[in-house]
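ESCALATION

Customer reports they have been waiting on this structure for their group meeting. Please prioritize. Original submission:
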Amino acid sequence: MSEQMPDQLPATDWSSRSLRLNCVGAGLVGKTLCHLMARHIQLNQVINQSQSSAQQAVDFIGAGRPFGIGSKPLTHLEPADIWMITCPDDLIASVGNKIIQSGRLQPGNIIFHCSGAISSKIFQIPKLADISVASVHPIHSFSDPRSSLESFSGTPCAIEGDPKATKVLDDLFQSIGADLFPINSESKSLYHASTVMACNYLVSLLELSKMMLSQAGVDHKNHSNPLKGLIEQTLGNYLTGDAQTALTGPISRGDVNTIASHLTALENAPSNWQKVYCSLGNIAADISSKQSLASPQSLQAITKLLNQKDADRKYD
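Update from on-call: job pushed to the front of the queue and completed.
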């Protein structure tokens, strides 16, 4: 039996257009988007490697027909107007182009993927095929699809590709509450690196701060994280202001001796800790120079310390 999920937005006239969607690779991202889109477009097939995995996705979505691509020939794929590829990044090219080469796509069809790092140019469309390509990347964490159904509305989505495809997909994604913005195809890798820094590497940085805390002898395993309030305040200040209003601490004040003591302490820690500290410290020094709180001489001395430690590591 299909699971009942909360509805996000009232149905639009997409259903009257009878546009059909096939989803290839309905994992966390695919089944979330399919569930949200199912009231705005006709969902045909949900295509996964195995029939059982496809059935599980259909049960979550509440619409569509499961298709196990690993056990059935591609000639059994049903026609669709839009083909959404939501498999892992490393499989997009092979899976997407296999679908294209199967001959199941028809003139006027759209094929797109949801990767942040890869452009739509990865699809190899035969000349004169009249098939449009695009990519739409939601800046959203899909770790919990149920939660994503509630929180997706308002999600920024980067979109690029052929004009026809981007126009149709812009309308479709807006119908589920997305906030789309265009991006240059050639800039996708750098764009995606920025999202990884803000999400994945932020987790790494916070975990590193806890590791330093433990190295300093602070027991936080049986207590709440002592850094929690500081983290929340800093993120809040940044999100409601900017880097110049959010940055505090020794580099903001120009405390050269404090930075020197940090670097000395980090000499007894794993070498990559000091490397991260120095790299981020240089960025903090650039921000601090715009605050006008620390003197240019202090910031110059701090930058010299950070860069000297970086140079020392290269020649160890």
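Sent to customer with the following note: The chain has 14 helices and eight strands.
Escalation resolved.
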